[in-house]
Amino acid sequence: EQLREVLDSAKGQDTGGGDDDPRISPQAEALWQAVYEDELVLHFQPKVRMDTGALVGAEALVRWDHPCHGLLMPDRFLDLMEAHGLMDELTMRVLRGALATCRGWLEQGLDLHMAVNISATNLHVLGLPDVVQHTAREAGVPINCLCLELTERMLARDRLLSLDILTRLRLKGASLSIDDFGTGHSSLAQLLQAPFDELKLDRSFVHGATRDPARLAIAEASLRMARKLGMQTTAEGIERAEDWQLLRDMGCDRAQGHFIAPAMPADAFPAWMEDWDRRREALTGAHPEPG
Ligand code: C2E
Ligand code: MG
Ligand code: MG
Ligand code: MG
Fold this sequence. Notes:
The protein has 291 residues and is α/β, with parallel strands linked by helices. The chain is 46% helix and 18% strand.
């Protein structure tokens, strides 16, 4: 009885009379609220071809629009989401949001893929490929417009299950991208194990390549290897004209980075595209397609 009284009064103080369980930590509650009460927002960063500058895709990057702290970057909260078991729900919401935006772009006649980052912990649900296929269908987006980017030691936990899921996603038509290539999180062995369509060279090698011969060598070798394996190559973190020129001269297919555009809300995309059409002409000698 006494215990009940204590708990009831704690409840009252905790939430001003709400019915929340007082044993849930404020942090857990905040994280839960972020996911389930739509405090997550998506920004999109363009991927462009290095030969023509044409837009080929966009990567959805999650942010937390925190009621007190403002816009938080994923490095601040993704590990906490994982720790609190919220990663599957986060991924599903990002996927739905990204596909809805993609659908809008397709309707405007843009031809581009949407890239969504998938966490290692998402690769434990055997039904994931079906869920992804169903979600794309519901959003009205062909599944081959969807690219899944895999960071982290994605095959570390349950290798066979992860591989099974990835292979079936690929068979359903989604493309797979190996993210942050060259860091400890993505290894050569992984290239052999899953059917990746794209290799994203980590930005440390992209930056380093202009200054450090060792990093340049690794960048070159990675790109050559990816090409031989039939993969598209993307350089992430292109920040300066020098980075662009060097990576383009190395034959890299695509680029992403602040030099082209930072991640931005979807409604900022049209203005960026207009601006980029002018810049890319100077950069590549290519003429923007009419219309
Ligand atoms: P990532 O997938 O490798 O994404 C690239 C990160 O580099 C993004 O940071 C992007 O804003 C940033 N970036 C892009 N261009 C430049 C540049 O020129 N210079 C510099 N310095 N940075 C650049 P962001 O948005 O903070 O995301 C960090 C990481 O969080 C992502 O790395 C990704 O691994 C993870 N992440 C983001 N959104 C999601 C998501 O929805 N789900 C999952 N599971 N992970 C996500
Ligand atoms: Mg990524
Ligand atoms: Mg990356
Ligand atoms: Mg990264």
